[in-house]
Amino acid sequence: MNKNQIVEDFFYKQDQLMNEKLQIWLDHSLFSWQWWFGLLLLFISIIFWVKFRKKDSTNRLLFSGFFVVIFSSFLDLIGVSLGLFHYHYEIFPIASNYFPWSIALMPISIMTILQIKPNVNPYLKSAIYSAVVSYIVLPFLNLIGIYHLIKWNYFYSFLILNVVYLIAYFLVRRNNFEKII
Questions:
Q1: Domain ranges of the chain
Q2: Global pTM value
């Protein structure tokens, strides 16, 4: 078998699996209570942030929030692709991440914490945030069948969330943007 045929066979199998995933999503996820729960989380978190953010810091917060979205989505892609964990009841069947978490809850929760008591030690805030998410939120998502650990440990999430929070903190504190001329 030549290289082109191997690649074609792989993409054929990938297409078949994607079709199967779509059918499973249509039959078992779409409109389930977990699906509605995810949709509700998505909209409530966005509405919360729009209403309660510091308006004068919106651009600064969004800068760090977009980093969180991109980085957490990338890490989810790696984790799911390597079989470390996976999600059920995705809002969109083509996503490998849990959209309400990566796109809304995680960045909005971090942006919210960044703006509350901004002079508190960032390492303390990071540790508290990471502990709450890793040992309360993620186990809850596991309990209700959304998040499934395979070769993963909540402690790994704790470490990664600390790093993500601290990078977001670093980004939100930047003052040296040049004007685009």
A1: 1-30, 33-172
A2: 0.91
